[in-house]
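Pasting two entries for a bug report.
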Amino acid sequence: MQKLHYSSSINAPIKKVWDTMLQDETYRQWTSAFSEGGYYKGSWDRGAKILFIGPDPLTGKEGGMVSRIAENRPYEYISIEHIGIIKDGIEDTTSEEAKKWAPAYENYTFTEKDGKTVLDIELDSLEENAEMFNEMWPKGLQKLKEIAEMQ
């Protein structure tokens, strides 16, 4: 596992960036950079189970990640612990494929600087996924920035 880091300065208050990132409608918009049609089921509350789901580009069936919210300090920090995968619509936390990368963490830190919100992201990645993430995350952050700055 390796740690990947991304950051974006967004010309909007922290609450606006937080809400844009996590609310269902805008979440679907900015995360389309990762998976068109992606969404989540569950809660962002600390300790809650949350599923990140999207159509598999090859089969069209549901795929994604089984996760839980490890930490949630509103408008400051959120940590997602990925604990398994969803393949063909079925949750899997015990197979070798799931255990190969789980647990993996995705952490978001929100800070205010010069009237803007700085969003810092740190995530665990298998080496073979790093290049893909390095292409997707800047696009996703750009979409998040555009949506948050629009309103």
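Entry 2 (this is the one that rendered wrong in the viewer):
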Amino acid sequence: MKRDWRQVASDAIRRNDHRNVLAGTVAGVGAAIAIGAMEWFSLESHYPLVIIPFATSIVLVIGSPQVEPAQPRALIGGHLVATLVGLIVVKTAGPGPWTAAFAVGLAIATMHLTRTFHLPAGIDPLIVVFNDLSWSFLVAPVAAGACLLAVFAFAWHKVVQHDTWPARWW
């Protein structure tokens, strides 16, 4: 027996309290706005959107702002550390699949050691090595983008969701 999509949605909403539904909707809107801004930034900076590694960071800081990897130290520091590791590895060993694998592993270890572990930043060294990117990638889009994302998340949580983010800045 085939169920009507409206009935399925209604049942799902009934199982959830309305506060969760509203929070999820607001987080979805915030993420969509941030992704749109990222798309604009990618067009303006002439970096393809897939090279700017922030889509999953946006989901994390907007959708799960209370978790440790969504805090500014992890958000900004994780992207900077992981990208720096990728750049050092690619400039030392050159691009290639094994180099990329090594860079990702080393970036994860380095993020843990520096207490900047940010799950989405794990892709940064892969992007850097496969595309043999230059040192300027660390500044723009990575440093600039991570800082702008932190500012966006702060404003979003303060103005729209009326909650406190971050739990701590550093």
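Dev reply: Rendering is fixed now. As a check, the viewer should reflect this: The chain has a mean pLDDT of 88.
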